[in-house]
Amino acid sequence: MTPSSSNTTSTPTGSGNGGSTGVRTTGALGNEPTASMGTDVDEDRLLGASPSRQMKEHLSEAGSHLKQATRDAGSAVKSAASAAGEELRLGRANVKAGLSDSAVAGLSAAEQAAAASREQMDVLMDKGRDLLDSAAELIRERPLASFGVAFATGWLIAKLARGGGGGGDR
Questions:
Q1: Are the beta carbons of 139 and 150 closer than 8 angstroms?
Q2: Is 107 inside a domain boundary?
Q3: Looking at the 3D structure of the chain, how many domains does it have?
Q4: Which of 39, 49, 120, 136 would be a feasible disulfide site paired with 20, CB 3.0-4.6 Å?
Q5: What is the pLDDT of residues 28-40, one digit of tens each?
């Protein structure tokens, strides 16, 4: 035996009547302990259970871990879906609020435009009344001159309407 290699042997320890047992591992010389396992180790494992039984145990343990991982993944998916639903509801509410604010602003702008157009119409109507009033006053002050201007304007419009711009009738 070389000093660098170790020879480990396992010997069952405990009560010997089928109860809990412990394992004591010894080093190369066989007398110094190197590792110790707890007392909850299955006795079949210690006494050399068959490889197929160990494989079944490992597969069973892997299956239980897989089931737990599946439950955890399902829970995470449900949680993510719930959070996404909440975000969607919040986004929908924000869009509705934005559209509502936009509609209110549009109505306000339309009302302001209507008020401005009414104001401009009032100004134009006042100017038209002022023009008619000044024309009526001019006619009262100078009736003959007003009649002459009106006659000349009427003759000119009639001449233009007949198509005889400047050549005369033949």
A1: no
A2: yes
A3: 1
A4: 39
A5: 445 444 444 444 4
